[in-house]
Design goal:
Its cofactor is Mg(2+). The protein is an alpha/beta fold. The protein is 39% helix and 27% strand. The strands form 3 sheets. Strands 5-4-3-6-7-10 form a 6-stranded mixed sheet, with helices on both faces. A two-stranded antiparallel sheet has the order 1-2. A two-stranded antiparallel sheet has the order 8-9. Strand 4 and strand 5 (111-115) form a beta hairpin. The chain starts with 5 loop residues before the first helix and ends with a helix.
């Protein structure tokens, strides 16, 4: 049995303490009753955002993934791209970043892209991959700018089956689809397996009670 991923365990602990990762009963967009809920929008102050960006930067450096700039899809990705760029600069990698507007601007600099010129190998940053729609839209914008999408960085990989257009369980997860169908590397700070390992570790005795429900959910919907 492999030893727990130390960075992932630290991140899960941080997410719980920040109230971003919660346990109970939550209805997902796909209509599933999930025993946990991860809301990255609650990394909503300077200290939390800074620590979150530090986790992304550390995971990216450890991954060895090569990229020339960051791209944050609107809206959550905008803040993430800026914060991660700051942390990477602190790590000695000063990289440009860009993001998109939801609506094209017809004055000033115009267009939908803001920030540094989109060029070279571009890493897309987001909180999670649910349906992969945001990733596909980002890929189209990056390629239209003449650059090459090279990967996606996310906070949590839920490791569960995606749903198709009819609401049925798909064979692959959204992350697996991005890897196999779009050919992009996906780097996650933590996965559902890491979350389960944390619940079972005894690091937070109050949360151990949720391990069976999370395990059952993984067995039902996991990949």
């Amino acid at each position: 049995m492999n030893a727990p991923d130390a960075l992932a365990q630290e991140f899960v602990k941080f997410s719980v303490e920040a109230g971003v990762l919660r346990f109970g009963e939550f209805r997902t967009k796909a209509g599933r009753l999930s025993p946990y809920f991860f809301n990255a929008g609650l990394f909503n102050d300077g200290a939390r955002l800074g620590r979150l960006a530090s986790f992304y930067a550390r995971r990216l450096v450890a991954s060895g993934l090569e990229f020339d700039m960051l791209f944050g899809p609107a809206y959550k990705g905008i803040t993430l791209a800026a914060a991660i760029a700051i942390e990477l600069a602190r790590e000695g990698r000063n990289l440009p970043f860009a993001y998109n507007r939801k609506e094209a601007k017809d004055h000033g600099e115009g267009g939908t892209l803001v920030g540094a010129p989109v060029a070279g190998r571009v890493l897309i940053v987001d909180d999670v991959i649910s349906a992969g729609t945001s990733v596909r839209e980002s890929i189209a914008m990056i390629r239209a700018a003449g650059a090459t999408p090279c990967g996606v960085a996310i906070a949590l990989d839920r490791q569960e089956k995606a749903t198709d257009a009819d609401g049925r369980d798909a064979e692959l997860s959204a992350v697996q689809s991005v890897r196999s169908q779009l050919g992009l590397d996906v780097v996650a700070i933590a996965t559902l397996a890491d979350l389960l390992a944390y619940l079972r570790s005894g690091a937070d005795p109050a949360l151990e009670q949720y391990a069976p429900a999370v395990q059952a959910y993984r067995e039902r919907y996991g990949v």
